Amino acid sequence: MSTDLFFFDLTQRPPRSPRIKLGGYVLLPRILDKGRASLAGKLGEYHYKGAGMDRHFFNFTGIDHEALTKEIAKGLSDSELLAWIQANAKHQRQPWEIIAWSEYHLHRGPDSDAETMEFFANEVKKFGPAREDINTWFDLIDLDDYCSFGGKA
């Protein structure tokens, strides 16, 4: 099944939440959305470089960012891309490892170093100084996506 890159316009809507899973992996559907949008020239304010939060997926699987981009460019569906990832991951993971990795990232907040905690706190403050409900990186990403497209913090 082929996926039309035209439908991945991240100037009009955000990519899928980092919480959404594919093959048990959090972040993966979001990475695929950003890859498709990048190839379509519709990435908007998002980044697709295999860096930032995405780097955690690439490090965990051992998938090469450029190789994945080439597969995305073929117009493959999510399930076809997952099959490719499973076949080409340098780090073949057991289902329990994928679950544990995903659960860790679902609940991951800022690291304990002062610089990261200050960065996180400053990002949260942009949405309101009294926000106490934003505790994880995924909370912050989802809120940023929501507000970027007209939602109120």
How do the strands and helices of this protein lay out in sequence?
Blueprint: E1 21-22, E2 25-26, H1 28-39, H2 54-61, H3 65-73, H4 78-88, H5 95-106, H6 114-125, H7 137-148
Q: Summarize this, please?
A:
The protein has about 150 residues and is mainly alpha-helical. It has helices at about 30-40, 55-60, 65-75, 80-90, 95-105, 115-125, 135-150; strands spanning about 20, 25. The protein has 2 domains: about 5-105, no CATH class; about 110-153, no CATH class.
| Secondary structure: helix percent | 40-55%
Q: Give unreliable regions as ranges.
A: none
Write down the secondary-structure element order.
EEHHHHHHH
- Give a count of the beta strands, DSSP E runs of length 2 or more: 2
Q: How many domain regions? A: 2
Shape: globular
Query: Structural class of the secondary structure composition?
Result: mainly alpha
Give the biggest beta sheet.
2 strands, antiparallel
Number of helices: 7
- Give the strand line-up of the largest sheet: 1-2
**Assembly state:** single chain
Mean pLDDT: 92
- Gap from first CA to last CA: 38 Å
